[in-house]
Amino acid sequence: MIKTISSREVYRNPWTSVREDIIERSNGERGVYGVIDKDPACIVIPLEVTPEGNFVWLIEQFRYTVGQRFMEFPQGGWEQADVEPEVLARGELREETGFTAGKMTHLATLAIAYGVMNQKHHVFLAEGLSMGEADPDPEESDLILKRVSVDEFEEMFLDGRIVDNCTIAAWGLYRIWQARRS
């Protein structure tokens, strides 16, 4: 067990705060632990089932931290600790894709990079999609919406076109959930 001796905030912006904790480990040794505090987020699996096959909708966007464009499921947060997870998921889906979902299923709540960050990530399956108009945030003005077959989507994990661990984890969770319902 690790005990917190003291804590101080070293940085804050509207999306994130960073704190530095002085800790004491179970062996009595003291150290420093850096923690990123973030409000809850969500990731949405927009699934379209048609007679021609099953498809998912992805967004492609530039990710500043790694300096590249990537494809991933719609995801994000609103910088509010007390937001209702389904309201957040429906909002992010509409903002980034323009879709509304006839049915939203909460699959699980995961932790993102919990070695350094305490953010919860609510995973939702969105079905019965209806197209509307997207309303992206200013940082998301370059989003590109793409529809891909489930077979191609899964191939994208293996060939490196999708590297977002949250998207891959959400899909793995969905596949387990789906298999247990069969």
TrEMBL record:
Top-level lineage group: Bacteria
Family matches, as InterPro entries: NUDIX_hydrolase-like_dom_sf (IPR015797), NUDIX_hydrolase_dom (IPR000086)
A Pfam match: NUDIX
CDD domains: NUDIX_ADPRase_Ndx2
This protein's UniProt keywords: Hydrolase
Any one GO molecular-function label of the UniProt entry: hydrolase activity
Hydrolase found in the keyword field: yes
Gene Ontology biological-process entries: nucleoside phosphate metabolic process; ribose phosphate metabolic process
One GO cellular component term: cytosol
Classification via Gene3D superfamilies: Nucleoside Triphosphate Pyrophosphohydrolase
Cofactor: Mg(2+)
Domain (Nudix hydrolase): residue spans on this chain: 37-170
Catalytic activity: GDP-alpha-D-mannose + H2O = alpha-D-mannose 1-phosphate + GMP + 2 H(+)
PROSITE patterns xrefs: NUDIX
Family listed: Belongs to the Nudix hydrolase family. NudK subfamily.
PANTHER family the UniProt entry points to: NUDIX HYDROLASE DOMAIN-CONTAINING PROTEIN (PTHR11839:SF18), UDP/ADP-SUGAR PYROPHOSPHATASE (PTHR11839)
Name of protein: GDP-mannose pyrophosphatase
Lineage of origin: Bacteria, Pseudomonadati, Acidobacteriota, Terriglobia, Terriglobales
